[in-house]
Structures are given as structure tokens and as C-alpha cells.
Write a structure and sequence with these properties.
Layout (H helix, E strand, L loop, with lengths): L1 E5 L4 H13 L4 E3 L10 H13 L5 E6 L3 H7 L7 E3 L3 H11 L3 E5 L5 H13 L6 H16 L2
Parallel strand pairs: 1-2, 1-3, 3-5, 4-5
Amino acid sequence: MIAIGSDHGGYKLKEEIKKYLEEKNIEYKDYGTFNEERTDYPIYAKKVAQAIQKKEADKGILVCRSGYGMVVCANKFKGIRAASISDEVSAKFAKSDDDINVITLGADYLTTNKAICIIRNWIAEEFKGGRYKERLNMIEEIEKENMK
């Protein structure tokens, strides 16, 4: 299950991503926004991050104009490993090396086709484990120390 969310700047791209997910029979839940009326991205980053924390979703996709505000906000939640992704290669390594569970996309910088290629690569990639898992364990320890 993928939790998906956007602010007003990412709304149109989010709607196109949803069409792709539906075509591929990939289960998702839309956490908003539901129109292009001005809103604030932290609202939706929080909803998606909390859905993953509550195990309502396995991973998340967040879309705003740049992808940067969303990534900052999502990474404030324990257990969330978010990355702003702008190409297919980054999507692959974000998943294989760092088991990124939330990707953020910048609607101002990506075409629909590019965003879908990124998502396809991210979903298809497997986490390597091994020494990479050891690093994630280190990150979890840092979270325990700093996220009370």
C-alpha cells in the first residue's frame, strides 16, 4: 500500500501518478490535497508519514513544487526515510542502498512521464540488506537518541 499526498503545487502531478498506480493495480490511499486551492505542504507530509508509522501503508509518495519542503517535513518522523528524487538512477539507489520508504517529487521539475519512471524504478527495486541494513540500524539508534 502506498500513501500519497501533495500540496496545491503538486496536485496535478499527484493526480497523474494516481492514474498510473490504478493502471498497474497498485494499491494506494490519497491523503490529500484534493484540489489546487492554496494549502500548506506539512499537513500532507505529516499525514503520509503517520500512515506509514501506523502501518496503514508500506511506503509513501509526496509531491510539491520542489520536493524539498516535503522531504524535510517527512524526515521529522521516526522510521521515515525520505528522499527527494529527480531521476530513475537515484530512485533505484535510494531503495537498494537506503531502503527509502518515502519519495518526494518536485512537480515544477518533472514531467509526468519522468515521475512515473522514477516511481516504477523505486517500486521495482529491492533493498540490498547486509552492510546497508547495518547502516539503517545505526540510523534507528540515532532516532532513539534524538526523537523522544
